[in-house]
């Protein structure tokens, strides 16, 4: 069995022309159940770099790590870089695959008279690809998503419909068959694997959208090392990554 952890960002709803967030992302990881505990233990061991005692609601959250906010505010930049590199090592050495669906909001608005919400559209495309992969490997899967009160019930309803009937679109409609039960939501601070999905999503999105334009200073070389390692890892670990509509 596989567990699928999905996270999303740049959700501006139906504000399709938002220039600051032109792409809506849902990305995540497919992880074999045998790998869950080893990955969790490795991530939890990294927490001790920041505090020997357990911190309530501690999480490796990309925005706090990248901008050095919250729990991470009191630590130097070298530790931040080292943390990203250690997380990449965990990803590199683990039996997992990366998946990502991007929705170009402006193109979606131009193409359809009444466009679907980008979140629901991205979710549908990803579910189709995940199920294709797991049908071929004769595996079952359970879906876990980062909590999103805005779209939660609609996603659950859509998922149920995909299982009972089909996905949305004409010739490409498909019934989702190998999934177990429903969509489960969790707060990311309760799930090390969701945090891993969040960090790899952030680095991937920043790499693709910002073209390496992080705010560089004395550690420019180290930051570039992060993205160069990520590119190599994603070449091996990416099952599916796509942007729609074309």
Automatic annotation (TrEMBL):
Record InterPro entries: DUF3800
Protein name: DUF3800 domain-containing protein
Pfam families: DUF3800
